[in-house]
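To: structure desk
From: M.T.
Subject: fold request, one chain
Message: Could you run this one when you get a chance? Sequence is below, nothing fancy, just the single chain.
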Amino acid sequence: MNIYRLFPWLLAALIATPMNGVALADQDKRPIYVISDLHMGVGHTKGDNGYVLEDFRWPRAFDGFLRQISNEHPKGVDLVIAGDLLDLWQHPTVACAKLRDTECGCSMEEMKQIVKDVISGHQAEFNSLGRFLSGTQNRVIVIPGNHDVALMEEEIWQFVARAVPAGQERLMRVKSEAWFSSDGKICIEHGHQYTFDVNRFPDWPNGITKACKGGKRFFRTGGENFVQSLFNDKEALIPLIDNLVPESMAISIYSQYSDLKGKKSEDIARLAIFVLLQTSFYQKLQWLEIKSGERDKKSTDQIIDFCRRCMGEDVVLGSEEGQRYRTQAGITGAEQEKEFRLAMR
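Reply: Done. Structure tokens follow.
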């Protein structure tokens, strides 16, 4: 749900505890288990060492979990994967993960390739799901989250459905905002829409694509933009930083690392440049959690005030990162620097 991950089955809580820790829907008495945020990424498609951006590292635990709940409930069990089964943000082999055009993410064709690569890197886990569904009355319900929102599109979902070798008729996808049990007493969703932060979509679940230059692309939230513009580089240095709970621990560890390497000022400047110059207006509102429904002058003034007080133009311009950015942007003279400063405001 958020930028940082939780260990999947510790997060996976059984929704209620009326009977041996398992939620039961009154209508058919089927036990319901809920897990989320598995974040299966590119896996080991690169070889035995895989990619440092891969966050799912427990295939045997996943397989054992599925076997256990299936054995415990021979009449059938419902497994709800409540968002982010896949991680479609962190992909080093497809160009759209490196875009710098704020809200325009991957095209449909680029996303298809990403999903193919993710499935290739996690075929063992999809085989486990097939065994869980095969020859049983078990069901798997997949709720798309903010990291795998593309599963809302039928073309993308079909790649996932076909990757499960058996029991596909009992593999279901939620196309709306939430899943409800058959008796209507249990509601499950991913949760990224609850607060106005960097993970929220402006029009969920409908507005997941956007008309961009060159055609339709998937809408990129401020969180996805941040991960692809900044966070991936940091995770490459400390691979487990994306699996720490709470996220404040990850921030603390990286802050110590940055300080030790003498990079803290540089990191602050890089973040300032990102927030000020590499985010859309909507994403700036997300980062600052400004809840105004209108993009009005008051909201703009709040952003300006925040940037002036907390970032500081000279900190950015005087840093190595600032110098590199000015060079890339072709800022050479006093007049262009003045325009650059105005843009930051």
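Reply (cont.): DSSP finds 13 helices and ten strands in the chain. Let me know if you need anything else for the meeting.
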